[in-house]
Write a structure and sequence with these properties.
Radius of gyration: 21 Å
Strand order of the largest sheet: 3-2-1-4-11-10-5-6-9-7-8
Largest sheet: 11 strands, mixed
CATH class of the largest domain: Alpha Beta
Number of domains: 2
Order of helices and strands: EHEHEHEHEEHEHEEHHEEH
Helix content: 25-40%
CATH topology of the largest domain: Isopropylmalate Dehydrogenase
CATH architecture of the largest domain: 3-Layer(aba) Sandwich
Structural class: alpha/beta
Length: 329
């Protein structure tokens, strides 16, 4: 059985290296990933004693430096050729890895992904793609969420291709692709949005449904929403902040309410926990930088062992399902 080799940045994230090693242990012990091999970027033999003690053998490590910090500028990583991020992306380019997962500096990872791993043929701009919760527990896709603050109309076509492929990877058949705009009328929007709208209408292989307004974010009118990285990142953080604000307000109102309010709160406590879990980034594992030469997963900087496990698992699935080959139309 040939191995699916997933690289893991041992130095990225707030909880490195403990959560990364523990998350890798969970993944290597999983019954549904029998052909998984985790390749740590960084570390030394003694760091992996727990894996050896548990009888795990499907792992390896490549020496690397821990010299990419949160203050490292995106272009600086291109000079840090001994860093875990640079080496991981280099191994993506040479197909030594099927995927690379990092909880580290987002800008540095994007830069290394684009300029070290390289872009796919025909793709002008890769994008960060996220899976989001929606109405009736239906997942949807938002891209770009931060890789490209400034865009040209043709970049939004690339994002549509990437989001479309990712939606299919998530199990959505014939995804409905929309373009985020400040109205649904043809005359609404910036010059870039209007031009992208016309180009998307002519794009073959995409089920383009036109403009989508932000108030439809949690509705059921689209499966993929395309926008520039500045707007997408703002939308994502607004959604996250609003969701947690509402949950916190509900808990505070129950806490300071009457006895009946407190009893009601106890009755719905389980449902509130369920709602919170639906909004938790850990269930998705991470975001994908699509359009580069390989599966590149950016996990949250505060990822715990469970989130790292989920990031490895989603990267594994993407390799298995040959996600990258489905981006070009």
């Amino acid at each position: 059985m040939s191995k699916i080799r997933i690289g893991l940045d041992l130095y990225g994230g707030d909880n490195a290296p403990v959560s990364l090693i523990q998350g890798a242990i969970f993944a290597l012990q999983a019954q549904d990933m029998p052909d998984l091999e985790v390749c740590f970027m960084g570390g030394k033999s003694s760091d992996f004693s727990e894996l050896t003690e548990k009888g795990l053998t499907n792992f390896s490590f490549t020496p690397a430096s821990n010299n990419v910090t949160n203050d490292t500028k995106p272009t600086e990583v291109l000079k840090l050729k001994d860093s875990s991020i640079y080496i991981g992306c280099e191994k993506l380019k040479t197909n030594e890895l099927g995927a690379f997962v990092s909880c580290g500096n987002t800008g540095a990872l994007l830069s290394a992904g684009i300029f070290v791993a390289g872009r796919l043929p025909g793709i002008k701009r890769p994008s960060l793609v996220a899976a989001l919760p929606g109405k009736n527990s239906k997942v949807r896709v938002l891209c770009d969420i931060g890789a490209n603050a400034d865009v040209k109309p043709e970049f939004l076509l690339d994002f549509a291709k990437q989001g479309n492929a990712f939606a299919k990877f998530l199990g959505i058949e014939n995804p409905r692709v929309g373009l985020l705009n400040n109205g649904t009328e043809e005359e609404k929007g910036s010059s870039i949005t209007k031009e992208a709208h016309q180009l998307l209408k002519e794009l073959q292989g995409i089920n383009y449904i036109g403009y989508i307004e932000a108030r439809e974010m949690f509705g059921n009118t689209f499966d993929v929403l395309v926008t520039d990285g500045f707007t997408g990142n703002a939308v994502l953080k607004t959604m996250e902040g609003t969701a947690y604000y509402i949950l916190d307000e509900m808990k505070q109102l129950i806490k300071t309410g009457s006895i009946k309010d407190k009893l009601g709160g106890l009755l719905i406590k389980k449902r509130l926990r369920l709602l919170k879990s639906k909004l938790d980034y850990k269930q998705y594992g991470g975001t994908f930088l699509l359009g580069v030469n390989g599966v590149l997963v950016k996990a949250h900087g505060s990822s715990d062992a469970q989130a790292v496990y989920n990031a490895i698992k989603v990267a594994y699935r993407a390799v298995k399902d040959e996600l990258i080959s489905k981006i070009s139309l």
